[in-house]
Amino acid sequence: MESAGDLTTTRAPFIENARADGELYIEQPYELYSAQNHEAWRTLYSRMVPRWERYAHPKFLEGVNNVALDPDRVPRLSDINKFLSPLSGFSAKAVSGYVPAYLFFDCLRGRAFPTTITIRDLSKLDYLPEPDIFHDAAGHVPMHTDKVFADTLVKFGEVARSAARYAQSINDKEQAYRTIESIIKGMARFFWFTIEFGLMRSNGELKVYGSGILSSYGEIEYAIESPEPQRYPFQLEWVINQYFEIDHYQPLYFVIESFDELFAAVEQLEDWIEAGKLDCLSPGEPNVNEEDLKSFLEASV
Q: Quick one: how far is CA 97 from the chain centroid?
């Protein structure tokens, strides 16, 4: 029988209650993690370590050591932040679930990363219906210890503010909605193919720095070794017009050469938004919901 204190993804009463009460930013109720939750973390962590050592970018491996993740138990975000904040000023910020797009990016601007506190079912470790704490804390957070990468996330948050300001300057309401929908698609695609599923060269070798791959036991090897996916040098024009799907391994990855190049690409993205180059991108995934649209059009900028 499921424990009353269970924090398993998709069936945690604490999360359901927080959402019902309209609470987006929450405290991590550490005492509610069940033995099964800790076992899921332990299993996920132990099987990922050899793959990280083989395929992960060196900056990620440094980050894992720097935040001192516990291999045996779900981490306390407060413990992570004790190590993380002095290194880059970032912190992991517990949330009850989905964060509207502008609020998510604005958290990055404030050097906070919205962090899910639930963890996937022990019996379904390879199936992730939505982000969980292993994806966020073990996949994302170690990269946040790197100053250049952390500054890139902050810059991405600044880009979102520029995008909101640009859309709000459009007088015609329907045009403003169409424009910001296209911009959000472009930003989401950029984030997906870099922060979530990006590859990077390191000393001539192809390595993983994208958190979606770093938290996937199967895809981390597939992304580097498999002959099936396409791997192309990062091109902003292609990235912002390339749709993606979330329910299978990626058929396409973009390779960037350095974190400095990544930061420069985010600066270019901001320039393109302000120049109107993201006003009418190719259709397709991701879908942009009404909450995301309003989060940009009603943002205080």
A: 13
